[in-house]
Amino acid sequence: MQSKNKSSLKGLIVYFLKLGTIGFGGPIALVGYMQRDLQEKKGWITKEEYLRGLALSQLAPGPLAAQLAMYIGYIRYGIVGITLVALSFIGPSFLMILVISMLYIKFGGLPVMQALFYGIAAAVIGIIIASAYKLTKTTIKDKKFLWVIFGILVLTTAITRQENIYLIVLAGFVSLFIYSRPQFSSSTKLFTLSPILPFISYFTLFNMQLLTKIFFFFALAGAFVFGSGLAIIPFLHGGVVLQNHWLTETQFIDAVAVALITPGPVVITVAFIGFLVSGFWGAVAAGLGVFLPVYLFVVFLAPVFEKYAKNPKLKTFIQGVTAATTGAIAGAIIVLGQQSIKDIPTFLLALGALIGVKKFKIPEPVIIGFAGLLGLLLFRAR
User: Fold this and answer.
1) 203: closest CA among 195, 191, 212?
2) Percent of the chain with pLDDT over 90
3) What are the start-end ranges of the H helices in the chain?
4) What is the DSSP string of 157-193?
5) For residue 187, which phi and psi values (nearest 5 degrees)?
6) Long-range contacts of 49-55 (CB under 8 A, 24+ apart)
């Protein structure tokens, strides 16, 4: 069932341009904004479409928020929709990263990032708590077993400090067994990955010139790293710093900081890395590499999800996956909170951001800007 309030292609493009320009908070907050704006306020997608897109984005590898945005573009306007939405969502933050990269090289690093990040990172925690709370209420409701799945994923994500894709998939099958009791047969098909298999070999070539090597390294990250955009950080650290020695530890930490203090998808940090390695074309190669697999996964898998959308077994499977995904998101907040809330001032910043978003409906960019200014003042006073 499609939404009654049909969106226009121009409307989607304008919305994702705006989200890519002022959408702070990382993947957890971004998927929350899409739910709030596109489903609840505008009615451009239904609740079922949103939940299917969220489930697909969690099951398939690649950055969560970018994949959900592409899914929405694809189910509404096909190849044209996914292409223009992807460019609209990724483009603004990519351009910001290019400017920051040039300044970074010109001035030999950006020490001010530490001060900005001190305030902004704490505020981001408050914002994503509000988003996760709304998502939890929407997806789980009063089904007790889904709360069990949610709790397990909160604990495992917080303890292991990473999202476990196997547990998320298992949650889908357990939900299927508990709520649907399927009769398995040779004709039972939830979804198939066979259309994407021929493309996997393209992501394993790393023995060409530098730009090609950059492209395929980041394509591998986009194709095989599951979870939110934050999940890609450990993979990048191993390849960029330890294996290829493209960046120093300090430069890599700065790259992560750049991603967190700029709007749009967190995984756009790859453009900063690519720029430091090989200038503008390095940024283009890295950005294209990490997002192209996501684009292809959506193109091949979205039609399968939509085709079987009314299948009660698939709906039950998605229900379990979504509960697990929501738990993983909540667990990720705990991990991020441990890194971002370091003292009483940052705790108060996070609490203030949460109250500002929930009670006073203050726009997130205003909160982020204010937190950045406070960060500059408080960091120097430490």
Assistant:
1) 212
2) 35
3) 9-22, 26-34, 47-59, 64-107, 112-139, 144-160, 165-179, 197-200, 210-224, 232-236, 249-261, 269-307, 312-340, 344-358, 364-381
4) HHHHSS--HHHHHHHHHHHHHHHT-----TT--S---
5) -95, -5
6) 49/2, 49/3, 49/75, 51/138, 51/139, 51/318, 51/319, 51/322, 52/305, 52/306, 52/309, 52/318, 54/322, 54/325, 55/172, 55/305, 55/318, 55/321, 55/322, 55/325
Tokens representing residue 377 in the block: 């003042």
Q: Residue written as tokens 């408050």?
A: 126
Tokens of 29: 């907050």
DSSP at 35: I
Q: Give the tokens for residue 49.
A: 């479409």
* Alpha carbon separation from 104 to 107, 111, 371 (Å, rounded): 6, 10, 22
2, two tokens: 């499609």
Domain boundaries in the chain?
9-184+292-381
- At position 344, the amino acid (one-letter code) is I
Three-class DSSP category at 102:
helix
> pLDDT digit string (tens) for 220-246?
888 876 655 555 666 777 788 888 999
How far CA 59 is from CA of 132, 134, 140, 169, 193, in Å, comes to 18, 21, 18, 7, 11
Gap between the Cα atoms of 362 and 36, Å rounded: 14
pLDDT per residue over 129-170, tens digit each?
A: 887 887 788 778 778 889 999 999 889 888 887 667 788 888
pLDDT tens-digit series, residues 82-128: 999 999 999 999 999 988 888 888 776 666 777 877 888 788 788 87
Specify the 3-state DSSP secondary structure of 196.
helix
Compute how many other C-beta atoms are within 10 angstroms of the C-beta atom of residue 10. Answer: 9
Question: Tokens 């709906």 — which residue?
Answer: 315
| Residue found by looking up tokens 């609209």 in the block | 88
Distance between CA 366 and CA 256 in Å, rounded? Answer: 22
* Alpha-carbon torsion (84, 87, 90, 91), positive or negative: negative
What is the pTM (predicted TM-score) of this model?
A: 0.74
